[in-house]
Amino acid sequence: MASSLLTKILLSPRAIHTSSLFTHHPPILSSFFNKQVFSIRAVSTFTSQNTRLTGWAPCMASSVVSRRATYSTRSAPTNEPVVSVDWLYENLKEPDIKVVDASWYMPDEQRNPIQEYQVAHIPGALFFDIDGIADRTTNLPHMLPSEAAFAAAVSALGIQNKDDLVVYDGKGLFSAARVWWMFRVFGHDRVWVLDGGLPRWRASGYDVESSASSDAILKASAASEAIEKVYQGQPVGPITFETKFQPRLVWTLEQVTKNIEEKSHQQVDARSKPRFDGIAAEPRKGIRSGHVPGSKCIPFPQILDSSQALLPADELKKRFEQEGISLEKPVVTSCGTGVTACILALGLHRLGKTDVPVYDGSWTEWGSHSDTPVDTADTATKTQ
After folding, report:
1. Which residue numbers delimit the Rhodanese domain (predicted)?
2. Could you tell me the pTM of the whole model?
C-alpha cells in the first residue's frame, strides 16, 4: 500500500533543489508548522497601464507587498485556458477562487514537489499530488483515478464544484496542464492554468509563502489517504465535490488502435523528436522506442515561449500547421505518461479546439505491449 503524503515528506530520499530559499539544513522540518510570507520590494516603476518597466529585488519582510490592484476584480476568461499572474494577484483573495500547486517532475530531475511547495508556494495554494491522486489498480504511472476516488480526494482538499480553480507548477507550464485536464475530464470546467507558473509569479514581484500550515499538509495527506480508502472499499467522506465523467476527453489503448485504421483523429505526440523517431531510448525500462503509426510529433516545448508560457494563438496555429495538423479535423494527443500531452491539449484549447482527448496511458502503455504496432524514423523512410 502506498504510504501517506506526510510520510513521503518526512522520509523522501530526494533533497530539496539547490535553488531553495534556505541555506540551513534541514530547510523544511525545522519550521514544519510555521508559515512565513516572503515579501517582494519593488524597485521598478509603473506606467498608468500598470506596465512593469524593470526588474524586482526580493527581500525578507513580515508583511505583504504594499502594491495594490488599481482596478476591480474581473471574471476569469471564458475563452482562454490560462490566466495571467497579474489577474491571479488581483483576484487571489476572492472566496470562490482556489489556487492549486500541481508541481511534478521527471524522476531523473531529482526534485521533490511537496518539499519545494513547503519552501515556496503562492499564498493559500493547496497541493495536488499527481502521483497520489491516481488509479491504484494499474502499474502505469499517475493514470486517471475512478470518479469516486477523484471526488473523495478533491473533497479532502476542500475543493467544491462552485470553486474557480487556478492551477500552477514550479517549471512554468508543465504538470499543471495535467491537473487542468483531469478536472475537465471529471466535469469541472471552471479551471485555468497559471501562465508561466510559479517562476513568472515570483519574477513579477508577488508574494510566496514558505513552509506550509499544518492544515495544508494534512489536506494533501488526507487526499492521498482518501484515494486508498476508495480502492480498498472503505467509506470516505464527506464528499463535497460531484464528478461528471467526460469520456470524450480521454482515450484508451483500444481507441488508439482503432484510430490507426479509421484515422478519425490526428494523433500528435508531445515527446522529443529523438524518442518519437526511435533514435533515443525511452527513460523507462522495458519500453520500446518509436511512435504510433500515423502519428505526428510536436515536442511540447515548441508551443511554449522562453519563459515557459503558452505561445500566442497565431504562433500556436502556425506551429501545428507546420506539422501538417489540420485544425479543422479532430485531434488526440499523447506523450510518455500522459502529462505533457495535456500541454498540447491546452494549446489546442486556446485555438478553439476544446474537446481534444488525451491518450492517458500514452507511450508507457503502448510501448510496453509486445503486440502494438510501432513505427520509427527508419520504418517511415522505408515506406516512403
Report:
1. 93-210, 261-375
2. 0.82
